[in-house]
């Protein structure tokens, strides 16, 4: 089976991991701007530590990142040389509304993104834009408690409506929230939540999630009103949980772990709260506050496609929970049948095929792989990187995607994560590299910032040119 000619090959970045220029041209302070690269990082991301300002003794990797804010023309040209059909990025909320409460959007921020999207179109590259990619104005965090407060819906909708209007005709594909299920695991980076031990934490997380889900549905409504050709998707941090053994308790646990994530997509895709959530809410003493028409809004304005990131599968065990470790945010038992990356993320291409089939069976909506990649330590020698390990990783995942498509799964496109090296969201490191383009910058922002093509650059160029036929 050949992939359709309009398949969207490309890559993805995020504003807070690439742009830098965190305080230039009137940009306000955002959540990831205050997350340092040190031993406090994970606690802050999880919402377990209040960290509202940048401390002078800490290093904040997003402040410089790879300076994409100033180098985007050079970088887009390199992506175009590979033949990109699609480029995913996010918009920094605080470049458009520095505090989130302004009456009018910031003209310099609008102009920057307009120029960026026009640069993409110059090369025939379709932008895919994430409206909120781990990004909340810090003013809204400090003043309103971020998404725990229903007022956030209005702030978000004002922001989203501005984007739909200002970039009408420049952007067709949109994602409302990046990896929306991450709110349950990294609550601050996911939704700007700061949690305290004297609260019902699950109540706070699911109430905030409800507000995001209503906001997402309203964004779909407005996008379609402004331009019926707009395609708006939701996004899942995907990767099925396998039962660690065939013990029925492991099977049940894996099912419930998967449902934790599917919950969000069930609502955004089907428009209803799933029946299985009633028991969880009762057992965790969760009582959602909602307006009378919230359920109607979500029912009437479901997404057009389902975007997903995929890096790894996961395992669940009732007997071995004490051995769980973080695997791309979510806890997992180590799977003895598959290898691991240098950062302990397990490599499971077949898991991508399984996950794609699961999602398509469940939702029957087009899927869009918007993140897939390998974080690795690259060594620049004589102006290039011999990253055969990355080529092998991507090749096997593309093969798995093609097998899923043979299974009958509809896939819109395939975007690699971090198509140009950027700051890793998990660790804040530059040394955890994903790209086809090496950026000469180290973990503490030192280096020339020059770009170098890796071996994988020409390999991916060939993959795109042959529409996925030649993977060697």
Automatic annotation (TrEMBL):
<keyword id="KW-0326">Glycosidase</keyword>
<keyword id="KW-0378">Hydrolase</keyword>
<dbReference type="GO" id="GO:0016052">
    <property type="term" value="P:carbohydrate catabolic process"/>
</dbReference>
<dbReference type="Pfam" id="PF00232">
    <property type="entry name" value="Glyco_hydro_1"/>
</dbReference>
<dbReference type="InterPro" id="IPR001360">
    <property type="entry name" value="Glyco_hydro_1"/>
</dbReference>
<dbReference type="GO" id="GO:0008422">
    <property type="term" value="F:beta-glucosidase activity"/>
</dbReference>
<comment type="similarity">
    <text>Belongs to the glycosyl hydrolase 1 family.</text>
</comment>
<dbReference type="InterPro" id="IPR018120">
    <property type="entry name" value="Glyco_hydro_1_AS"/>
</dbReference>
<dbReference type="InterPro" id="IPR033132">
    <property type="entry name" value="GH_1_N_CS"/>
</dbReference>
<dbReference type="InterPro" id="IPR017853">
    <property type="entry name" value="GH"/>
</dbReference>
<dbReference type="GO" id="GO:0005829">
    <property type="term" value="C:cytosol"/>
</dbReference>
<feature type="active site" description="Nucleophile">
    <location>
        <position position="371"/>
    </location>
</feature>
<protein>
    <submittedName>
        <fullName>Glycoside hydrolase</fullName>
    </submittedName>
</protein>
